[in-house]
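Structure (tokenized):
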């Protein structure tokens, strides 16, 4: 007695296996099963791909919005730093005015 023992690792959901020596029978079974299920499987895959594309698009938009918000905050901080710097410059000018006044008072006293 002879027999064929074949084992193949299969992916989940892959269960359309036919072993026969009748080529015409195999073609008919393929038309009745595989071709019918392939159309439904393709539709499901297309739907899943569309959902994933939408999710990626939403994530991209959220990242762009966050980046824009961070840029706005950075610009606001830069503006505040510029205001601080200009305030220091004004203080420096005020100090130099006081120095001149003190200098004038000292000369008057002499």
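Design, position by position:
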């Amino acid at each position: 007695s002879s027999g064929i023992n074949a084992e193949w690792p299969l992916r989940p959901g892959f269960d359309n296996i036919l072993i026969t020596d009748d080529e015409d029978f195999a073609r008919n079974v393929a038309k009745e099963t595989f071709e019918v299920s392939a159309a439904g499987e393709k539709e499901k895959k297309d739907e899943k791909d569309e959902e994933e594309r939408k999710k990626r698009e939403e994530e991209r938009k959220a990242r762009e919005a966050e980046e824009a918000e961070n840029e706005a905050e950075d610009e606001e901080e830069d503006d505040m730093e510029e205001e601080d710097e200009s305030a220091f410059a004004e203080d420096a000018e005020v100090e130099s005015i006081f120095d001149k006044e003190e200098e004038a008072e000292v000369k008057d006293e002499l």
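Reviewer-requested clarification: The helical segments are 23-32, 34-109. The radius of gyration is 40 Å.
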